[in-house]
Design goal:
It contains ten helices and 15 strands. The chain is α+β, with helices and mostly antiparallel strands. It folds into two domains: 267 residues, no CATH class; 126 residues, Jelly Rolls (Sandwich), CATH 2.60.120.380. A hairpin with a 5-residue loop joins strand 4 and strand 5. Helix 7 packs across helix 8. It starts with 72 loop residues before the first helix and ends with a strand. It holds the Pfam family DUF6055. InterPro entries: DUF6055 (IPR045690).
Length: 473
Amino acid sequence: MFRRLRTLPASGRRRRGLGLVLALATAGVLTGPAASAGAPPGSATTPETATAYPLATESDPGTRADKQTRAPQFMVDAGAETGNVAESEHFAVRWGDAVDAVAWGRENRGIDNYPQWVADHMDEIYAYYVDEVGFVDPADHPVGSQYRINLHLCGTWSGDFLPPANWAGGDDIGLGHMCLPYDKVWDEWVESHEFNHVLQIYAVDLNIAAGHGGGWGAGNTAAGPVWEAHANYMARMKRPEVVVGSGYIIDRQHYRWLSQETYYGDWMLFNTIRELYGPDVIDQFWYEAEQGEHPIDTVKRVLGLDHEAFAALIAEYTSRQVVYDFVDGDLIRGDLWTGGGDYRPLHTDPLQSLGGDRYRIADSDAPHQYGHNTIQLNPSGDQVSVSLTGASDLSGADWRFRLAAVSPDFSVRYSEAFGPGETAGFGLQGGETHLMLVVAATPSEHRNYPAGQVGVGDPFPYELTIQGASPAQ
């Protein structure tokens, strides 16, 4: 998770050919997501103005070891222990006065200098995301280029100062810092997630420097959900086998994208975009999002998608989840189908019979915007036809549906995507055992909903005419 932060205007070189940012922008109050429990007192508020810092220049890799170490002001103001520190090239790992992290590491982990091991481990995480994946390079950031990222071994201070928690944010000068429990399991998941929050902070600063006002930060109401979804998307690059632990919940796929109930697991849309457009465009969203813009509007604008093209993207995103048809699909399936064996649906949505060959989705199960239903059909012959009629009065209501024929080995064959009033004709072929129907809500009018609230959204119910098959119950 990440805490409310004070970010600073910055400039520098955008990664992957995004161009050199030469202009400094001076911003007003810049806020990120809500503060987490146990975060520094100053994290819940932001100053009236942000300070402009000198232009960062493209750095020589040989100078990176010259970064300085700085204690955040909130620690100094609190009179907290700041002298216990282990340094690596990019990190300063601190521990407090209540737990001797060096002695604890020797006794419990068999590591002679545990804080130094943590610092070196985090340099490996840094190298993976900055040098190999190529997200934001702190060398391009005016503060991040000068100072080591502070990592607090939380739970080692007395007086309940920095209690055990997982968070990351920006300190009083916009330098990234992280809180991780001193006794955590270093499994490359949580530390990757939190480190990417630091990179997101720097990305927002580069966005400001480019004249976009802060994009998905700087007070954007969607910041909390999209930062978490993206941080898990990034963490899964290091640990692609983590799915259940990422917050992806099988029986909540009808919820809207970035809902309070699903946002940690909503990295799946980024997975789809990466497969269709390449990974660089995900970074581009961060650099080019306009201030206050909802991420869906950013996706449409940056990719140049009109409504039909965006609806096709959502149809692709949702139908691929029948078997998790991605480059990392084997690893996703390994975490979801834990018992192994042949393909079997993990979750299906029931339909209500209207008599004859007509059916309706219950309002309680109907997809919200960009959510979807998965319905198993039992064919009675070689050919199945499906048509959809909308049953929503919401302006811009629209849907896309697609059929998927699945074999026991999880190989999949898709129909085209269809809209209301159109009829899909499809059927199983030799060796295919499951016919799955996926229906997604693809409204042409995007609705912004308040963040941080459960049960918020609008269902988009629909009716189906199905011939040659019956829905499994």
